[in-house]
Prior knowledge:
Distance between the termini: 66 Å
Number of domains: 2
Helix content: 25-40%
Bound molecules: nicotinamide-adenine-dinucleotide
Amino acid sequence: MDVRxxxxxxxxxxxSGSGGEFKTTDPATGEVxxxxxxxxxxxxxxxxxxxxxALDDPAWRDMPPSDRAKLxxxxxxxxxxxxxxxxxxxxxxxxxxxGVARGINVPGxxxxxxxxxxxxTKIEGTTAPLSIPGTFHYTLREPVGVCALITPWNFPLxxxxxxxxxxxxxxxxxxxxxxxxxxxxxxxxxxICEQAGVPAGVVNFLTGGPEVGRMLxxxxxxxxxxxxGSTSVGREIIAASAGNLKRVTLELGGxxxxxxxxxxxxxxxVGGNLVGSFFNSGQVCAAYSxxxxxxxxxxxxxxxxxxxVGEMRLGPGIxxxxxxxxxxxxxxxxxxxxxxxxxxxxxxxxVTGGGRAGGALSGGNFFEPTVLTNVTHGMEIATKEIFGPxxxxxxxxxxxxxxxxxxxxxxxxxxSVWTKDLATAHRMAAQIKAGSxxxxxxPILDPAAAWGGxxxxxxxxxMGHYAIDAYTQVKAVWVGV
Length: 481
Ligand code: NAD
């Protein structure tokens, strides 16, 4: 694969950026997939100017909602048309299994555009029953303006769609900046937007690393930042956005607890947690990364889960026989390895896995699927985000302590409870401070379901009607009658 992404600014494709260039590689092999331009100050400023101008361009500002809906639908159709190419590109650039790219990521991306295409003609204001005689009051929902959309590397295409689809549905203009590790499919998405007929300047696309992100979040011409990534960068973004008081939506890190109660259907819990912990090699913000299992069932659970892990086939995502792919970079692999080593020093026991895969896989970023037991609440591995294929199992004795343990990290993105008892399910769902609680399910998403974290896992929500709130502002109009 030899892709030469270009920057897309004001409807023009630019082959180079004033920030230089960088390479993007295949995590399974180290092969260079493309040389990518790094945007600099000049392109950031031009992209912001173009996006501002697009807000006043009648071709966009006055486009009838039914036409804007058709445009979003057209983007979805083109994603379907290029699905095979997009899936292979995502697998090569990110490492994920081709089945996941084909079956979840790419169709999930198209579904975001279809779902928000439906919203375009339903973005309504309200009238308020004022008590002041001789007045009439109504509200309009207007676009926020220029939105910087900054995305991470774990689900590059789909996460770009979580932001781009509602931003366009609401009539905003955008500058998208994908993660430097995985720029390729977002580049194709920008091309698809042009092909679908999105007016010039409405969608701008810049590649580059943190510095490009900083230039956007500091920029006085940007009205809103929608960011998905780490909590530490989320904090920087809040500070950088203070200058012109940008609207900020943050989807940040997580440390989802998964609670397996005494009465749980253990086989269902084993199957669901294998997905919850190892899907996309654990590189999921809502990954189940600390399992609280009733001590009376823990041996059975660990035996069955380890058998499941033993059946996993670690290998390049592009090979259909692989059931677990690499992690995105050497840097990430070393970080995960460090966490597992520290856990062992802290007293955890490695049941299976525990380190980098050798042999034929030693050339890629392959970390063995790892199950850890003897983990106790409070260890680093039980409090820090892992973002890798590691399942730490903590045996618990007292169900009364579960909610306080589950809530005892700075994160609050997701949580899961495995139980046959309805009362336990609802009680835990009420007590856990997390944006999404899954009962007897691995973490899943739907464009109609609100997504977003509590506490240090983020600000605001994506998806559902909440996304319409996030990408509009409300104007109150008062009329003397
Ligand atoms: P990251 O925070 O390092 O980078 C994310 C993006 O921000 C990249 O595009 C990067 O170039 C850019 N960036 C980095 N520093 C910046 C700065 N100072 N200002 C502006 N932009 C900057 O995150 P990552 O390593 O790419 O992704 C992994 C993290 O993302 C994990 O913590 C994971 O939990 C989180 N995540 C959260 C969700 C969610 O929905 N809550 C979804 C996926 C990933």
